Amino acid sequence: MTKGEDTRDRILQHAMAIASEVGFEGLSIGGLAKSAEMSKSGLFAHFESKEDLQLQVLAAARRSFVDNVVAPSFRVGRGEPRIRALFEEWLTWEEGRVTPGGCPFVTASHEYDDRPGPVRDAVVAAQRDWVGAIATAAQIAIDEGHFRIDLDTDQFAFELFGIFLSFHLYYRLLDDPEARQRARTAFERLIESSR
Amino acid sequence: MTKGEDTRDRILQHAMAIASEVGFEGLSIGGLAKSAEMSKSGLFAHFESKEDLQLQVLAAARRSFVDNVVAPSFRVGRGEPRIRALFEEWLTWEEGRVTPGGCPFVTASHEYDDRPGPVRDAVVAAQRDWVGAIATAAQIAIDEGHFRIDLDTDQFAFELFGIFLSFHLYYRLLDDPEARQRARTAFERLIESSR
DNA sequence: GATAAATTAGTACGAACGTTCGTTTTTGTC
DNA sequence: GACAAAAACGAACGTTCGTACTAATTTATC
After folding, report:
1. Is pLDDT of A4 > 80?
2. Nucleotides in chain C near protein beta carbons (<7 Å)
3. How many contacts (CB atoms, under 8 Å) link A and B?
4. Burial tier of B156 (Cβ tally within 10 Å: 0-12, 13-18, 19+)
5. Percentage of the residues of chain A whose pLDDT score is greater than 90
6. Do the Cβ atoms of B159 and A158 come within 8 Å?
């Protein structure tokens, strides 16, 4: 790994952290440079535009999400156990161990839901992928005999995402100390009705 | 109503629309002035700062939410029917008949969940109010005998909010034409388990 | 250690930002 | 219609934005 790639990765880590707090539009070159402790122009030389920066931050966030949420879950057994792991890792990811402001995709989803362009396209692709992965995990749980055979896996993904998003709201905005417990309760109800 | 109050209201309508699309931070005085077809300074004279503008937009959004979502629901019977009406009106509100970008509070919630200050405080207050109103509606449904007596009304609010937020994501970002149907299905499952 | 390449820094740009000011136009009252 | 008050305007402030250039410095290769 060359020096340039090294600092570029360091920049992207800072950028992910900032974007998780103030969003991808709120992310500024000057502020990012200050955070990374380098000059604005020196930093900007690594990207061809701000949009390119935003796209690269999104790509970095996807890699981080796979490493921190998806990969660990695939080390536990198929079916319901894996879905449980997925959900717990997902909540932990949202709690901000990696990014102080929580999941950057939640931020991005709301910033770009009415803002056409390449960044929105990338966010949509990322979320579609993730929703699809949840549905696939549910299908595996069906195949394993954990979930009932007529379960609507897309509906399962929809409802699981809802629990996560409500957790985000209660945890981040409302500062509800019981947020995680509420999410778990809702999760159990969803699992129960999927059996 | 004096002339000044009249145009101030008109400004707030434009501002609500813009904020629902690009957020409260993305809202700019210049852009708003262009939308309202008046000069930047003339518009700014109605507010003592941008933050004051943001707070007034939030207040206007609350009034609009009460008019468009809460009030109609209170014209139907207490208990489960009212909760059904509340939910349907809420989804319709999100679909953007009033504000093109959907619910301004969803936007604001994600913009300010990591941004301390008076605006965040106002958003938190608004959302706490609404969550409380949902829980109260659930309590009424218990009193009416529609819901089971040991139902956790706060948990009910948490889960209902989750369905709404997932609807937001599927409808606005993923452009899922079945979003509303998915929300309804999840809603029915929640109601069923509350009886 | 010399030399070329890759990486950072410095400076400047035009545009947009929120905000202030003095002036002009419009409004409502006698 | 005179007059004061209210409302809207135009211009400018200092700052920050993203981006473009060139110069200096660091890194890698021989």
Report:
1. no
2. 6-12, 16-22, 27-28
3. 124
4. buried
5. 96
6. no
Class (C level, CATH) for B49-192: mainly alpha
B-contacting residues in A 162-191 (Cβ below 8 Å): 162-170, 172-174, 182-183, 185-186, 189
- Rounded Cα distance, B97 and A146, in Å: 42
The three-point CA angle A120-A124-A129 to 5° equals 150
Question: If pLDDT is split at 50, 70 and 90, which confidence band does A26 have?
Answer: very high
Cβ of A102: how many Cβ atoms within 10 Å? 22
For residue A178, give both structure tokens. Answer: 């019981």
- Residue nearest C17 (alpha carbon to C1'): B28
Q: What is the CATH superfamily name and number for domain A51-192?
A: Tetracycline Repressor, domain 2 (1.10.357.10)
B166·A165 Cβ contact <8 A: yes
- Position with higher pLDDT, B116 vs B2: B116
Query: Could you say which of B23, B101, B110 has the minimum Cβ distance to residue A106?
Result: B110
CA end-to-end span of chain A: 48
Joined together, the tokens standing for residue A74 give 């695939």
Sorted by sequence, the CB contacts under 8 Å of residue B119 that are 6+ apart come out as: B24, B51, B54, B55, B58, B108, B112
Evaluate whether B120 touches B114 at the Cβ level (below 8 Å).
Answer: no
pLDDT at position A1 is: 67
- DSSP-assigned states of every residue in B142-179: HHTTSS-TT--HHHHHHHHHHHHHHHHIIIIIS--TTH
Q: What is the distance in angstroms between the Cα of B14 and the nearest Cα belonging to chain A?
A: 16
- Within 8 A of B152 by CB-CB distance, chain A residues are 185
Question: What are the tens digits of pLDDT across the range A71-126?
Answer: 999 999 999 999 999 999 999 999 988 999 999 999 999 999 999 999 999 999 99
Q: What is the DSSP string of B8-54?
A: HHHHHHHHHHHHHHHHHHH--HHHHHHHHTS-HHHHHTT-SSHHHHH
* pLDDT tens digit sequence for B57-85: 999 999 999 999 999 999 999 999 999 99
